[in-house]
Amino acid sequence: MSEGKYRALWLEGESLIVIDQTKLPFSYETKRLTTSTDAVHAIKDMTVRGAGVIGSVAAFGVYLAALECQGNLEKIEILAQRIRSARPTAVNLMWAVDRMLKVLESANSPQEIIATAHQEAIAISDEDALGSQKIGEFGCDVIAKIAEQKGGKTVNILTHCNAGWLAIVDRGSALAPMYEARDRGIDIHVWVDETRPRNQGANLTAWELGQSQIPHTLIADNTGGLLMQYGKVDLCIVGTDRVTRSGDVANKIGTYLKALAAYDNQVPFYVALPSSTFDMQVSDGVKEIEIETRSADEVLYMQGLLASGDIGQVRVAPIETPALNYGFDVTPARLVTGLITERGICAANEAAISSMFPDLLS
User: Is residue 213 marked as binding?
Assistant: First the structure.
């Protein structure tokens, strides 16, 4: 057991410490979460983000609720529902809270409820850590095959948003195959989409890859299609916040456009995810998945390192101009080459998903 120690979050006594991802890449800071309300705020304001890490923080948030309520299950359930509704799109959040509550129902005393919450939150994150390792291995097999076809020349991979260890403990989803490729000595280069408007690619993915000394280049979000036309992209790997039982993929806004470009240029387009990201209750992603709308200020302003050396915001649009800020889009299953999971690579259709994940159907 990890005893609750992961790269993006870790237990310290009866508190959860998380990396404040809003401060990266210019400042490495952490926050101490001591209550379930702290967990809600961390998820809402994107101190933590990424489907898996949100799920882990939600699970530990239920544990913090158990401590707050001294093991009173009825009170815990009220606080847990507040955690569950912190953000709408990432299904791992709801899944983790529901799993925690279901396990707590079988505990027989307040002390047992607290101990069970502690153990189950760790178990959820441990499973993610093991799953991310397996995702890396299966995904790297794809990279290795392309490397062989290219005679050992550099494999160029395009990714959108951040799906590394900041998003899913402890190696991520989309970035896990890249970390595995580094470990196997495969020559790779990563095209990193900036991922406007919150710039998770520029701020987080580029930072992660730099920390691991993996060659990468930051590109504007609209550059990927051109690179594919020029034959400079061998495959795309992205993460996801929710995948339907039919294989539709909800991910950071802009993913759909990359998938269209990949399809038009015969570039393989893979989506990496742990099984907890499947939502078997949803079939049509476009019609049924709620897409989060965030503050217009994220579009109207950009945060970065100023010439003075301070971190600050600048407005990039006229004062009178309004903005619309959808956080995610849905990529139809027909555009997805395959789903890289901890159980193997699965075709993006209902029959294949149901066959590989029958336990998720009930």
Answer: no
Average pLDDT over residues 164-176: 96
Confirm or deny that 203 is annotated as ligand binding: no
Residue 1 has pLDDT above 80, yes or no: no
Q: Are residues 71 and 184 in the same domain?
A: no
Q: Reduce the DSSP state of residue 185 to 3 states and report it.
A: coil
Q: Say if residue 92 carries a ligand binding annotation.
A: no
Beta bridge pairs of residue 200: none
To the question of pTM greater than 0.90 for the whole model, the response is yes
pLDDT at res. 89: 80
| In a domain? residue 302 | yes
Domain total in the chain = 2
Residue 4 lies in a domain: no
Domain boundaries, position 271: 131-360
Mark whether 241 is an active-site residue.
Answer: yes
* 273 and 146 in a common domain: yes
Strands (E), 269-354: 269-272, 278-279, 301-305, 311-315, 328-331, 338-341, 344-346
Is 196 labeled as ligand-binding? Answer: no
End-of-domain residue from the set 110, 127, 144: 127
Question: pLDDT digits over 126-141, tens only?
Answer: 999 999 999 999 999 9
User: Per the residue annotation, which of 241, 248, 279, 329 is the catalytic one?
Assistant: 241
**Confidence check: pLDDT of 3 > 90:** no
